[in-house]
From TrEMBL:
Active-site annotation: H103
Locus of motif Histidine triad motif: 101-105
Coiled-coil boundaries: none
All copies of domain HIT, residue ranges: 9-116
Domain of life: Bacteria
Protein name (database record): HIT family protein
PROSITE patterns per record: HIT_2
Organism for this UniProt entry: Baekduia soli
InterPro entries linked: HINT, Histidine_triad_HIT, HIT-like, HIT-like_sf
Amino acid sequence: MAATDPDCLFCKIVAGEIPSTVVASDEQTVTFMDINPATRGHALVVPRTHAADVLAIDPDDLAAVARAGRQQARRVMERLGADGVNLLNSCGADAWQTVFHFHLHVIPRYRDDPLRLPWDPAPGDPEEIAGAAGQLRGEA
Ligand code: 5GP
Ligand code: ZN
């Protein structure tokens, strides 16, 4: 995979060809503000090297994004007065991914913000849970 994909929005943002509001950057990552913020301070951390998603990203870049994401999480707590933070990544269109350059959402959370869990936590069928675990362990 080339370091940059000429058709990729976030590669263009990393290269400065499309404007963005950058908060932080290092050798491997750039952290910039999301243009459709879920809450005040919502930002995205991306690797400088193009990779479509969590399955494709170089592990070392993934580690760099995780480090930068934690720094950004600290910033939103300390400087924006957030009460919490969600780190979110979507892999695949069916998992809500819309931009296919890996990114970690850093979403500040505030006590009274309007965000809600997208599922209703309810106990699962224990046999079904065990069945899924068996498949994940590679059993028949
Ligand atoms: P996804 O849906 O793939 O998890 O997240 C893509 C994110 O990129 C969305 O939250 C969307 O608001 C953000 N986004 C899309 N286009 C742009 C853009 O041109 N600039 C910035 N800063 N964010 C963008
Ligand atoms: Zn890209």
